Amino acid sequence: MSHSADRSDPATRPTLASQLGYVADRLIQPQPRQRYRAIGLVLSLLFSLLTGLCVIHEALSDPLVIQDDARQHVFWMARFANPALFPQDPIADYFQDVAPIGYTLLYRLAALVGMAPFDFNHILPVLISLATTIVVYGLTKS
Question: Which of 14, 77, 92, 134 is deepest in the core (most CB within 10 A)?
Fold first, then answer.
């Protein structure tokens, strides 16, 4: 039996009054699905934040702890605060030239608000984790 035959059968078709009642109930009563989704998002963000803070706690506790890649790709960004740093340094010039525009812009914005590149490098994974949590949670349907 096809679905179009089911809709045309007056015995199985909902009445206008029952449809309006359903819509009114949905508008008046709080939607538990939306509330559960909001609670789920908050819990996901909290989990993401707590795990991120646990991971970077060690890095934040010692100012000499630096990620290996940051030694190459972040050190030259100290030039944002002091353009006179690393004059005539071919290594700093090289890494500055090969850095992606978005990556450089992100660190330049952090420098504008007064964050040192290595400090920003410590908290950036947590910020990316929170943003990823929001995006992935928004892509899911429940």
Answer: 77
Residue spans of alpha helices (H) in the chain: 3-8, 16-28, 32-61, 68-73, 90-98, 101-112, 117-139
Name the residue with tokens 């939607």: 31
Closest by CA position to 42, among listed 126, 130, 124? 130
If you count them, how many residues does the chain have? 142
Answer whether residue 1 shows pLDDT above 50: no
* Distance separating alpha carbons of residues 103 and 20, to the nearest angstrom: 53
pLDDT digits (tens, 9 = 90+) for 78-100: 999 999 999 999 999 999 999 99
The residue with tokens 């819990």 is 43
C-alpha pair distances (Å), 13 with each of 16, 17, 23, 26: 9, 12, 16, 20
Q: Count CB neighbours of 54 within 10 A.
A: 9
CB under 8 A, 24+ apart: contacts of 106-109: 107/74, 107/77, 107/80, 108/77, 108/80
Give the whole-angstrom CA distance, residue 26 versus residue 32: 10
